[in-house]
Structures are given as structure tokens and as C-alpha cells.
Amino acid sequence: xxxxxxxxxxxxxxxxxxxxxxxxxxxxxxxxxxxxxxxxxxxxxxxxxxxxxxxxxxxxxxxxxxxxxxxxxxxxxxxxxxxxxxxxxxxxxxxxxxxxxxxxxxxxxxxxxxxxxxxxxxxxxxxxxxxxxxxxxxxxxxxxxxxxxxxxxxxxxxxxxxxxxxxxxxxxxxxxxxxxxxxxxxxxxxxxxxxxxxx
Length: 199
Hints:
Blueprint: H1 10-23, H2 28-42, E1 46-47, E2 50-51, H3 56-66, H4 71-84, H5 89-98, H6 103-108, H7 113-127, H8 140-144, H9 147-163, H10 168-176, H11 180-193
Antiparallel strand pairs: 1-2
């Protein structure tokens, strides 16, 4: 038999908010959405037959003021996580937007050129795209292959990298690179032009 949950009052709502913020990296918008859902699911406690007024927005604002919820820290960590898994700037932007991060915070935490290039190379390496797919000692005939097959393979690789949020010019450079050395130099150029962290 399912455990019956008590309707929420301001104290139990605060306890839920603190528990959620302690367990999960979150944003103000995500926390507010979570609390609103809990209020819908559990209802509101009554005091002398009248429903208690719950201040969800005020509670979230207070937790932000206290530093329990920090959209900027969330955006920094999410950007680092996604680029570290090979996702590009567009996917980072989409994830932060979906989490309710404000536009200025999203812009401040957008990955820079070096980080974008590094993430694209990481994805190509993991998926064995472009020069990362070529065997070290392939015969010329094997490397050439069927032109139609090569075209289809390239289209699939381009589509996969674009879905992962990478810029087309980055995708094209990696897939057209004749050697891994070309890619290393391309990365080094971006490192020299800006902050290595890309933020």
C-alpha cells in the first residue's frame, strides 16, 4: 500500500527545497518547477479549514540569496560537463536554456573557440570520424573505397556532429583533415588565441 503523503505547508516545502538543492545541481527555475509539481501532487495544508498560502517563488529567491542555488555555478559545471563529453556550443546553449538559465548567464558561460574545437575533436575521436577512422597502415586502394559509400559515410558523420551541437566549419575541418597533426595544430591555434578553458 502506498504511503500517504501529507499536504505541504511552508516548513515542509522549505525542507523539500533544501533536500532537492542538497542532492542535485539545479537552477532557480528548475527548483521552482520541482516545488510547483510537489504542491500539485500533495496539495496544500489547511489551517482552520483554510488552505495555507505557500510562497514558492519567495522560497526559491531566498535559497538563491543564501547561495544554495547558483545559476552561474550550474551553467559553468554543465558547460564543462557537456563539452567534456564531446558536445558543442549549440547543445550547451540548449541545455542551459532548458534549465531556465537566463540569457546573460548562458552567454557568460558559453564555451570559447578552443573549448568548442576541443569538444569537436573529442567527439570525432570517440566516434572514429575523419582521420581518426583511418587505419595506420591502410593500402591506398582500401583507403579510397567506393566514392558513393564515402559520400554516405561523410554525410552521416556530418549529421552526427551537427546534432551534437558543433559548428559546420569545425565539422568540415575535422572530417577533411589529412592528418592528426593538422588537427593538433588547429587546436593549438585556438589555444594561443584565447583562454584554454574557453570560458
